[in-house]
Write a sequence for this structure.
């Protein structure tokens, strides 16, 4: 009889996103769980992809990314954040932001290292830390607005802390870090060897006239951060899996060592199409208004229901508190909503290592107006 090796991730199964999307498909529910749009990317962007495919750009791209795209990323970064990274030594195109996160964490974390995680947190961070032999150190965000308690972060640091992972705008809560937050973080790690992974994939989804403040805008953080971005989020192309990382040359060098053995490179025609389409600056500059209108519609649809919510400050997610509707555990309530009501959401306990339940669900409003209205009508009568 074969003796199969034990699992390297025994505590991890299928992600909650796969589970809830599968349930939504099974029960033909409106899927506001997994974070993807139900509308298409711009037609002209798709035409650019086919243009480059037919022109023969279907072989391996350079490992670091097509030079045209890295140059456009550099120029855009300067426009948005006042810093122009060197496209050859500080910009790397990756197969989605998830791969960039994996490469950055893998490059930094060795057995015995500690990594500070702010919870609730996106689910791809911790498995990579564990696979590297590191230990996640969990710091809860403070309710009700899910702000960072920097005093608590400071108390969780040790001589073994290698990384702090931040995410702004924040998935799943929609909270947005401020310049003051970035300055506090910089002060905490000044004089240490601690590095930062700044997950900024929702950088263009900040609402109510607020601004996204990037780690690239804080001089000390810029010198020791991997800043991760996503074309999938910005251009409604999550299925293309194109992201990128900006980091100083020593960190980029280490990230690329990992990247070349994870995926080596990213699809060539997508990169060339995105490089051309980035000339259309209005797309990402108008994205806050585009998604704020969807946020406001979904929020208004629930305003007179028994659900409670404060409008999301960023991302395309809305947290909704349901304790006046049910006292069920959030995963059980999410399943009930999917099966019996016909709307799928993500239970926020899935973003905590110990499955903490604060009676919140996360809904994705990156959907058409018709989809949001249909979901709102089902939820408003509960």
């Amino acid at each position: 009889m074969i003796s199969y090796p034990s699992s390297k991730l025994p505590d991890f199964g299928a992600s909650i996103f796969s589970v809830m999307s599968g349930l939504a498909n099974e029960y033909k529910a409106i899927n506001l769980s997994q974070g993807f749009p139900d509308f298409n990317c711009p037609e002209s962007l798709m035409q650019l992809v086919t243009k480059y495919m037919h022109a023969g750009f279907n072989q391996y791209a350079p490992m670091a990314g097509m030079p045209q795209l890295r140059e456009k990323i550099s120029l855009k970064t300067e426009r948005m954040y006042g810093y122009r990274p060197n496209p050859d030594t500080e910009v790397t195109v990756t197969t989605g932001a998830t791969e960039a996160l994996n490469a950055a964490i893998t490059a930094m974390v060795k057995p015995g290292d500690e990594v500070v995680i702010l919870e609730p947190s996106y689910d791809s961070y911790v498995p990579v830390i564990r696979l590297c032999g590191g230990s996640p150190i969990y710091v809860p965000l403070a309710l009700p607005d899910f702000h960072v308690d920097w005093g608590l972060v400071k108390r969780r640091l040790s001589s073994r802390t290698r990384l702090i992972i931040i995410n702004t705008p924040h998935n799943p809560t929609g909270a947005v870090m401020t310049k003051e937050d970035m300055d506090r973080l910089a002060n905490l790690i000044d004089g240490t060897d601690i590095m930062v992974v700044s997950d900024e994939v929702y950088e263009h989804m900040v609402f109510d006239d607020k601004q996204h403040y990037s780690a690239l805008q804080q001089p000390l953080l810029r010198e020791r951060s991997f800043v991760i971005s996503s074309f999938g989020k910005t251009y409604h192309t999550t299925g293309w899996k194109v992201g990128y990382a900006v980091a100083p040359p020593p960190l980029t060098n280490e990230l690329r060592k990992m990247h070349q053995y994870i995926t080596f490179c990213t699809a060539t025609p997508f990169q060339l199409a995105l490089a051309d389409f980035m000339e259309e600056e209005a797309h990402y500059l108008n994205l806050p208004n585009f998604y704020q209108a969807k946020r406001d519609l979904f929020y208004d649809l629930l305003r007179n229901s028994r659900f409670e919510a404060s409008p999301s400050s960023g991302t395309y997610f809305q947290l909704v508190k349901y304790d006046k509707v049910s006292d069920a555990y959030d995963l059980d309530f999410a399943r009930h909503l999917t099966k019996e009501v016909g709307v799928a959401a993500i239970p926020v306990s899935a973003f905590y290592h110990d499955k903490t339940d604060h009676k919140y669900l996360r809904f994705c409003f990156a959907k058409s107006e018709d989809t949001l209205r249909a979901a709102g009508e089902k939820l408003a009568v509960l």
The chain has a mean pLDDT of 96. Residues 16-41+285-380 form a domain with the Aspartate Aminotransferase, domain 1 fold (CATH 3.90.1150.10).
